[in-house]
Amino acid sequence: MNIYKKCNLCPRNCLIDRTINPGVCGVKDKLVVARASLHYWEEPPISGEDGSGTIFFTGCNLKCIFCQNYDISTKLIGKEITTEELATICINLEKKGANNINLVTPTPHVPLIIEGIKLAKEKGLTIPIVYNTSGYETVDTIKMLNGIVDIYLPDIKYYDDNYAIKYSHAKDYFKYASLALKEMYKQVGNPVFNEEGIMQKGIIVRHLMLPGLIDDSKKIIKYLYDNYQDNIYISIMNQYTPLRTFKNYTNLNNKVTSDEYDELINYALDLGIKKAFIQEGETQSESFIPNFLNQELPL
Ligand code: SF4
Q1: What is the Å distance from ligand 1's center to 107 Cα?
Q2: Residue nearest to atom 2 of ligand 1 (CA)
Q3: Mind listing the pLDDT tens digit for each residue in 163-172?
């Protein structure tokens, strides 16, 4: 595929020939998948009771130093599959009862994912397609997904570029994430649910709070509400889990405190936000991180 020969699928703009070498995302021009299974811990209208048909793609274009899925983003664990196999996985997840097909870190694989999803739809796939991304996207790549994706599930991680550079080596993160969100909203619009309350179309923006960054978190929440009011959902997450020790950024060695989290939730409520998901109970544990080792794919 030509696009892989000079890759500009994401803001890294590597312009590298991925038929020969991987770019910053770590993957070449083949689909690589680490895990595909029903997942029950997404937001309620995504997982429902039957689960979300989650497909974890290997590689990632955002290089967060605190990555919670290190095995697939950096160690690049995964199995090479064809577009036909991706279609089969989607069909089999629907047969298992999945409420949707949930594409996790899909960006470096977009052209082949589009082929695979089209094939799956030809073979009878009917459930919505969810695009679950770090938010570090170009508008052009999101435009390629128009008519393919039904639900966007982007992160917005940072407002201040200094944090994006320090923690994810990503220049202009907010600029790219906010422009991508605008295009996503143009495509799928306001949320639509089926009778069981499962989302069929719409946007849920996720914000993973980081310890010590509450002012930045507030700026993101305010931006989202100022620009989208209650036409999108906001998922405010406190599940950050420190998986290693940081010498330079010691705040990342902590979990988010309940005081910090409550302060952000109260801030959102005071703004008037009604369409939000919050997390309750003990979510800050490695046991919530999926296992990617030796996974059988549903083929
Ligand atoms: S998808 Fe990968 S190779 Fe392409 S621009 Fe982004 S990081 Fe670079």
Answers
A1: 8
A2: 25
A3: 999 999 999 9
Asked whether 136 and 14 are in contact (CB, 8 A), the reply is: no
Q: How confident is the model at residue 72 (pLDDT cuts 50, 70, 90)?
A: confident
User: d(Cα 254, Cα 46) in Å, to the nearest integer?
Assistant: 29
Atom of ligand 1 nearest to the CA of 61: 7
> Is 36:297 a contact under the CB 8 Å cutoff?
yes
What is the CB < 6 Å shell around ligand 1? Answer: 7-10, 12-14, 16, 18, 23-25, 61, 107-108
pLDDT of the residue at 71 = 86
Q: What is the pLDDT of residue 284?
A: 55
- Rounded to two decimals, the pTM is 0.95
Cα separation, 157 vs 285, whole angstroms:
20
- Looking at the chain, list the stretches that DSSP marks H as alpha helix, in order from N- to C-terminal side: 44-47, 70-73, 83-95, 110-122, 139-144, 161-168, 173-188, 214-228, 258-271
| String of DSSP letters for 127-158 | SPEEEEE-S---HHHHHHTTTT-SEEEEB---
**Which atom of ligand 1 is found nearest the CA of 59?**
2
Tell me which of 13, 29, 60, 61 to substitute to probe ligand 1's pocket, judged by most ligand atoms within 8 Å of the beta carbon. 61
| Nearest by Cα to 149 from 121, 108, 178, 173 | 121
Q: How many helices (H) and strands (E) does the chain have?
A: 9, 10
Q: How far apart are CA 208 and CA 105, in angstroms?
A: 16
* Residue-level pLDDT at 290: 65
Q: Which of 90-104, 232-246, 284-298 has the lowest mean pLDDT?
A: 284-298
Tokens of 154: 């982007």
Of ligand 1's listed atoms, the one at least distance from the Cα of 107 is 1
> Strand 192-193 vs strand 129-133: parallel, antiparallel, or unpaired?
unpaired
